[in-house]
Amino acid sequence: MSKLTLDVDAVQAFVTIADFQSFTKGAEVLGTTQGAISVKLKRLEQRLGCKLIERTPRLVRLSAQGAVFIHAARDFIAAHERAVTALGSECRHFRLGIAEHVAGPEIPMLLARLNARDPALIIEVRLENSRSLLDAFDGGELDAVIVRQEDDRRDGEDLGPEYFGWFAAPDYEQREGEPLRLAALATCCGVRDVSTRALIQAGIEWNEVFVGGGHAAVMAAVSAGLAVAACSCRLAPADSIEVSQRLGLPPLPSSRIMLHTTLSDSRSREVLRTLAAIYREHRPVKRREAGH
């Protein structure tokens, strides 16, 4: 009986398609075309004698056989990576800075997939304000940074849009005739500058009743019903609602999330493609005010 041998690239294509539930995103991560990974998957399925991925115009998912094979496939890829890096290759460090007002629910998935993609990679993540991260990047302390476009005007890779709104607890009440109670980040925050400028232009008075303490603290003040905050629709507390129309607050301009890096070697570029694909997978949407 002949032994069954598997092609590493074909198995990697299958795992990547399964991870992102998309041929397009899988091709982006692997730096190839959708047609190329489709061919690799087809050859793998022919080799194994079963269908691994079910594909419809709206859905890409594992077949029953694919769900059984996926764990072994991940182990196969990890073993291959260990074998490749075993002789003379030291663990590599990847130093990533993410602005604290950009870091969102995709971060745990990002780190897990980067580790699965390159088990020999040691990932160091810094969550700080944009200015500190950009200074560290310019000083060679970080390999890549993710910030909002307005925080740094140089060219970078566009990871997608960022939408903003005014958020408050569902039971928040604004007393008639009183200034808006505003929770805001520190004075160096770009979102604070944009939102207060919008309030000035709209002729709306406000008092900053909760300032600083980081994004988590400001969002806690919102959830507690203490104030209104201008923030990313992607990062607003799940128990908050958009209150622009109810309170007559001005619209806020959207922004872009940008990736800056100086890395150009092939292994680093693979990591960066994975990172970019994960951010694009979690493209934010505008949160409409309840009842509108």
Automatic annotation (TrEMBL):
Keywords: DNA-binding, Transcription, Transcription regulation. This is LysR family transcriptional regulator. PROSITE patterns: HTH_LYSR. Residues 6-63 form the HTH lysR-type domain. The keyword Transcription regulation applies. The keyword Ligase does not apply. GO terms for molecular function: DNA binding; DNA-binding transcription factor activity. InterPro entries: LTTR, LysR_HTH_N, LysR_subst-bd, WH-like_DNA-bd_sf, WH_DNA-bd_sf. The lineage of its organism: Bacteria, Pseudomonadati, Pseudomonadota, Betaproteobacteria, Neisseriales. It comes from the Bacteria. Belongs to the LysR transcriptional regulatory family.
